[in-house]
Structure formats: structure tokens, C-alpha cells
Specification:
alpha+beta; Aminopeptidase; 8-stranded mixed β-sheet; 3 helices
């Protein structure tokens, strides 16, 4: 089975697919408290169409960065995951929200592919590549986690 392909760009024509993954995810109730906490801290995420591509903004930060994971191909492959993140200080990025397709979630038929963990690892690499960034804060989980990069 091939590895996931990552991109920061998603075509505007894939709006419904993205909306379903982020806002109508059948398992989001499991992370309800984390989602509410992130919204209270930074605002509600909104999909924005710019230059025929999709991005996200949140009330208190404006436009945020997005990492998409695709099955095999960033143009035609199925959208498998998305994460929203932002640089909130000179030395820290925060993982604000993430959505994972049902088959890759815990208990899903392809959960062994560990997409959520791979996306966090990818975000850690992104953080390390940003000058001055030394910390990654993750708002999802039993408690807010902060990782040194």
C-alpha cells in the first residue's frame, strides 16, 4: 500500500469533500471538548476559497496554514486527512484542528496506517523548518500537549 501524499493546496472543486471531513465527521463527538476548547481559544474555522483553492481562517488568527493528506495523489487521490495550524508566537506553532477520514481513524479498517500520527510527524518537520520555532502545541487529546522541536 502506498504512502500518503501531503500538500498545502486543495482545489476549490473539492469543497464538499473538505467540508464533510472537517465539519460532518462522524467521530468528531469523541473530541468535542477539545474542539470546543480550540474554538474558544482561536475562533471557529471557516473554509475560504482563494485563487481556485481552499484555505481556512479562524476569527482570532485570520488565515491559518493547512496540511492535507491524500491517498496516493494530491490532485486525484481521495482526501484522507486535514490539519489546521498556525504560528502563534515567534517560537511556537499550534495544531488547531484536524480531521481524519473514517477508515484511518482508530478502529477503522485502515487504522494500522496511523495517518493522524504521520500527520503530526509531518507537522513537526514543518515546525523544525521554520526559523525560531522550537515548540508545537497540540490542542487535541486528554490534555494540551506541547512538544519540543
Amino acid at each position: 500500500m502506498s504512502e500518503f501524499v501531503y500538500s498545502s493546496v486543495l482545489q476549490a472543486s473539492r469543497y464538499d469533500e473538505l467540508s464533510d471531513l472537517m465539519f460532518f465527521n462522524l467521530r468528531q463527538h469523541r473530541f468535542r471538548d477539545d474542539i470546543v476548547n480550540a474554538i474558544e481559544l482561536y475562533g471557529v474555522p471557516q473554509i475560504v476559497t482563494t485563487d481556485n483553492s481552499l484555505r481556512f481562517s479562524v476569527e482570532k488568527l485570520g488565515e491559518v496554514q493547512t496540511l492535507y493528506a491524500f491517498e496516493s495523489d494530491a490532485v486525484a487521490g481521495r482526501l484522507a486527512g486535514v490539519m489546521l495550524y498556525a504560528r502563534v508566537s515567534d517560537d511556537k506553532i499550534v495544531l488547531l484542528h484536524m480531521g481524519i477520514a473514517a477508515q484511518y481513524q482508530s478502529g477503522g479498517p485502515a487504522s494500522h496506517r496511523l495517518l493522524a500520527l504521520k500527520m503530526v510527524a509531518r507537522l513537526k518537520r514543518v515546525g523544525k523548518s521554520l526559523k525560531g520555532v522550537h515548540r508545537l502545541e497540540i490542542l487535541y487529546g486528554r490534555r494540551v500537549a506541547e512538544l519540543r522541536l
